[in-house]
Amino acid sequence: MASTPEALEPQLWRHAAACAGSDPTPFFPRDDLDEQVRRDLEHQALQVCSRCPVRVPCLQYSRVTGQEYGVWGGLTPSMRHQRATR
Ligand code: SF4
Description:
The chain starts with 10 loop residues before the first helix and ends with a helix. It has a domain at about 35-85. It has helices at about 10-15, 35-50, 55-65, 75-85. The chain is built from 4 helices and no strands. With about 90 residues, it is mainly alpha-helical. Iron/sulfur cluster binds near residues 49 and 54.
């Protein structure tokens, strides 16, 4: 039986997430918001991520599952896109 990548076992890291139980709005701001409002919300999310002990598996999970939206692993979608295209 093939092993499952750790990143695809959310329960192994999500229980330690700094964002667990918090308001998801800053992590997934709506597309129709004013750009500055979106940035402010993303900044709030990034502050939570900065003290999160599971940034690496969170980011891996977002990559493996092709997450295009939201803040994952301490990176906004545009940050992830920049990293992917370097
Ligand atoms: S890195 Fe950010 S989005 Fe990922 S689990 Fe931690 S707090 Fe949540």
